[in-house]
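call fold target=carnitine O-palmitoyltransferase
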Amino acid sequence: MAEAHQAVAFQFTVTPDGIDLQLCHEALRQIYLSGLHSWKKRFIRFKNGVMTGVYPGSPAGFMVVVVSYMSYNKYKQLDPSLGLIANQRIVGGVLVGTGLWVTIIMIMRNVLKSLLSWHGWMHARHGSVSWSTRLWMVMKVFSGRKPMLYSFQNSLPRLPVPSVKDTCRRYLESVRALMDDEQYERMKGLTKDFEKNLGPKLQWYLKLKSWWASNYVSDWWEEYIYLRGRGPIMVNSNYYAMDFLYVFPTSIQAARAGNAIHAIMLYRRKLDRAQIKPLMLLHTIPMCSAQYERMFNTSRVPGVDTDILQHMNESKHIAVFHKGRFFKVWMFYDGRLLLPREIEQQMERILADKSEPLPGEENLAALTAGDRTPWARARETYFSRGKNKQSLDAIEKAAFFVTLDDTEQRFEPDNPVKSLDSYAKSLLHGKCYDRWFDKSFNLIVFKNGTMGLNAEHSWADAPIIGHLWEHVLSMDPVKLGYTEDGHCCGEPHPNLPGPQRLQWDIPAECQDTIQSSLTLARTLADDVDCHIFPFDDFGKGLIKKCRTSPDAFIQIALQLAHYRDKGKFCLTYEASMTRLFREGRTETVRSCTMETCAFVPATHLTPPRLKLLKMAAEKHQNMYRLAMTGQGIDRHLFCLYVVSKYLGEDSPFLKEVLSEPWRLSTSQTPLQQVELFDLVRHPEYVSSGGGFGPVADDGYGVSYIIVGENLINFHISSKHSSPETDSHRFGANIKQAMLDILDLFQLEKKAM
């Protein structure tokens, strides 16, 4: 049984002689340390706010400007206040010097914003730097020194609104290969009508929003694509991240959880202090960091019509699930963060707890896996008061959620297909009641020490959680390490209070709702067909020898594989980021292009077909650049559609465009902190990457991660219920397509 602990600050007894007051010094000490920790955190946030607010200036620059200005005035015998202030040399010098310093900062910030708005560097050929790009790189002078995580936020440009004409032209180009002549002419007519009539009216409102809001897309994207969805977020929205592929640091579940949780909390501390370096393209161009703000202490709270994101500024505990019971585990003691061995000690106590789940408790989390409206109504009816509210608050206000899973998952060299497929399905949906899908992310630690993440999608995109996961994987086996017998380094704490078992009183009516959600979730989970395979025949090292973008190479291979799999092309979604702009999230690259469709079925000899391939790769790269620089199609059309709904205008063009299914949805998982992993000396420390569920009922979801020079991991998902799809068949087609495209370059002959 987990130890029940209550810290009592004082006790008193009424006696004939008066009140006998007995203070508990340990409890008072913990209160003092907790308050000290809170005030230190407030001070750090205030200091970071000041540093970020004046960037690219600095307090030191303020002193230099003011002292220099006052020295100049003294030398010239000038009165900066023009006689308005009595002690003019000091007070007037400080005031005018401050104004001069603020002016310099504003000039530098606006110059930096202008420089960041230029994206000509993207079109430079690899390995060459034009004179315009070299001149543009003067931005380093305006970028300040030692930027913090949010230093560049005020200097990032706003996402531009493309012209209606350009968007319509690119849309027609993107669907030409997918339509016959009659369908295309019909769509062309709808497009031209929209471009001339309704489009300009909707565009005016969108322009107005782009001038007023930080980003004209992100808030509507979050609300309408994610939070207003009433279907299950499990499988349909949440995604997962896997552990190392070949390395198993320890087989002790509690120890692996101890190191991982400690590493995550260290990351949160760096995040709170804004000590994480902003991600910089080419070590020069900053990307938006706004999505990091809600990584921790965040839950998606269900509503009848729309959900909301609840974020707490501070949370000192985590919520843990094990065999149907929920626990609250404090992460701080004696005014400090628990050490890995101490966290392992807490996990051991939970694993040793033999108590049974309370009625309705075991399957409670299934509410987060089913439809949103029943969950919202149940939450309002049964969890808005008493012990249920307190326990639910403990989960929703936790830093993050941990599942100590009672199954074993791992890559098995003797059974690679079945083991990885089972591992992926467990991370994606588990048993449908053993993950709290509403939390910003779940850390899942399996019985044999393997681990992974399940992340909610509305608050941020995959690269953000990927940044955290890279930190955890780099810390775990190397920097934190384990003892020879597999435990965390250090010693258990003799006086550490144990985890707190959460209490519930769930009535029969609520249990019926839970069971309904569980039934729906299990049907959805059982329908998912996952296939994960490491492609190690070659990697980006060999692809670069073909003088082709690795991403373009893989995307074209996916088109070839899909054509062989289904005998046709389909509308294809590839996620691209728009974080070069303030509060940017994603844009769509429509990677099924006319050039790709010309290459795939070609039966020419190698030289002509190779030319078609290079044209397709170049087209893909150009589209990716357009998406990254705010000139994509789909976010603009989405926002125009939202405006049309607000105005009560009906657009057959927009309605048809937004109803087109993405039967092939793809995404690359980027390795962002390459310096954390020395894959040359330690090639075994490769990540498996992560994946997501299929977007269309009759389509495929494909995620891939390019690891090192010689490995690409693919994650494929589809639905068993569709007669058109088979994830394992598609995986075989991808592998063959990759090999066939490489053969076109005839690298063996060139080497000879």
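return ok
Residues 25-54 form the longest helix (30 residues). DSSP finds 24 helices and 22 strands in the chain.
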